[in-house]
Amino acid sequence: MFVLVCGLPGAGKTTVAGEVVDRLGGVRIRTDVVRKDLFEDPQYSDAETDAVYRTVVERADAVLDDDQHVVLDGTFRERDFRTPAYAVARDHDVDMVVLKVEADDAVVKERIRQREDDASDADVSIYEHYRDKFDPIQTDHVVVDNSGSLDATRDQVADAIANPTAARPSPDA
Known about the structure:
Layout: E1 2-7, H1 13-24, E2 27-30, H2 31-38, H3 46-65, E3 70-73, H4 79-92, E4 96-102, H5 105-114, H6 124-131, E5 142-145, H7 150-162
Helix pairs in contact: 1-7, 2-3, 3-4
């Protein structure tokens, strides 16, 4: 199975991706970690971001080649970042689930302020910058509301994984 977990900084993508990995096994590929693997002193330039997403997709392809589940964990805020990932799922003919993680504004801001020892460098200003710039997802997906309790989030993830869409999004989705 191929699971793409996306959403704004602080929404709880890594929590949701971790829950998916706990349920399925497989390999999680996190954009924040890949960025730091590739760049000693990340500058967050467009070229750097393109390299990160390209590498994430290449790693996902390799994981699927090994017949393992793969979970991608990143904002995937632009359609151009999601489309190559969808193509990998299609090429491997695996079930795919897209989970868009959301949370109430106040919850996100508080989570970001409380982060410690996290691979993400996003702060509240980054969250606010991208809040209105997230390209709409134009394929089947599940919205996970991560505003409440961890148990409520786990229940939503369990439902999404138990009922995967076998959709093969079009390249422009």
